[in-house]
Amino acid sequence: MIGHPYNLHDPYLSDPIGNAFAALGVVVTPVSFAAPETPPGPLQWDTCSIILRQLQQLDPTTWDGVIQLSSFNCGCDSIAGVLFREAVATKNLPLLTLVLDEHSAPTGIETRIEAFVDTIAGRKTKP
Question: Potential cystine with 76: which of 25, 45, 55, 120 (Cβ 3.0-4.6 Å)?
């Protein structure tokens, strides 16, 4: 799960999402914000830069997909989101972006999470 620390570590925002995945038997691991030992990339915002580098180094044989939590689509997320999508696409992994201000109704979030989990399960059953 990627996103800004204020979204990932906010119990009101992220706990219902984590609980919904857990109810479906899915383990979700949040991005680590430990400073990587890599040179700066195209993004100069620290959080977005760390997320992008981790996505670029993501091993697609280890992970089934990426979940992005965003509290709104302005500021750095409006720019970084495009780069995040490109990085995930190069790994051929599905990406679920939950914009929490717009998709905060529990039913809407649960429906999107279930569809994302179904997408991952469908990919695993294909020969």
Answer: 45
What mean pLDDT is predicted for residues 62-88?
Answer: 86
pLDDT tens, residue by residue, 1-14: 988 888 888 888 88
Domains identified in the chain, total number = 1
Residue with tokens 């995945």: 21
pLDDT of the residue at 4: 83
The string of DSSP codes covering 13-73 is HHHHHHHHHHHTT----PPP-SPPSS---S--SHHHHHHHHHHHT--TTT-S-EEEEES-S
